[in-house]
Amino acid sequence: MAPNVSSRHGQPRVMRTAAWVVTAISGLHLASFGGSPFVSSPVAGGSRSLRSVRSAEGDAKQEEGAGGPMSFMTVEQDLELSPEEYAMALESEIEAQRGKYYINGVVKPGNLVVPWKPVDEKALEKEARRVLNKNGIKDPAGDDSVREDGDLSLAPVGDQDVSVRWVAGEPGTKIGYVVERKAKNAMSFQELASYEAMETSYLLVKDYAGHVYDYQDFLVPPGSYTYRVLCRYRSGDVQVVDQKDFVLREPGGADGLLSFGFFVVLITALSLGSYFADQSPTA
């Protein structure tokens, strides 16, 4: 297939549009870290449209009443890319995500934030696709890994807390999520958090796919549990997103202290036995 070339500037339109998308993504990353709001302009001669990131900054009084440090940003995107353009945007976003794993974002050997944990390339691409999807940039090939809810993961936080994370799919007619837990020998699940409660209203469904939910279950007694996440729909239906078993072990410090105490008692007993044996009269 012949490349799509715009005669106005003598450049391939694919390259110009993709470069513009990469620049826009970079501007969004800059703004999210407190930089100046990025204001983009339409690509000359391009047929695609992007309602760009607009700055609605006003005077000091307007900013005070805006409701937050990032409330002056309004992101509205409606962008259709060719496979080549999407590949360039994805590559740029992957590199932006890669920087999070390195000290000060400097990607070089020996500069990992967690030296013993190498970067997961598959996880990088998945997160990059999620960010692009969130910003309205869809994969033209339809390779969207965040259409369905899933990827439930459980992890200990300290000695007594459990992190419950999952990725949301397309919003559709969903309303919100509910997190439940069941002890190993229990007959039924116990509700831990719901989108209906004010303190966990962040479990309401977002208007985009790929949002990562993270609920933290505090002060969990050691033991074996099953966690599950439910999703409620406007029709009233409730479906199980996923469920997984999890074992929260006794705090390591307590086990270590008991082991050390037992060791001390054993050594003391052996020493005393040896001492009294030496002091006993010989025949």
Automatic annotation (TrEMBL):
Basic and acidic residues: compositionally biased ranges: 54-64
Keyword entries, A-Z: Membrane, Transmembrane, Transmembrane helix
Residue spans crossing the bilayer: 257-277
Superkingdom per UniProt: Eukaryota
Entry-linked InterPro entries: FN3_dom
Chain residue ranges for the region called Disordered: 44-69
Name of the featured protein: Uncharacterized protein
Organism in which the protein naturally occurs: Spumella elongata
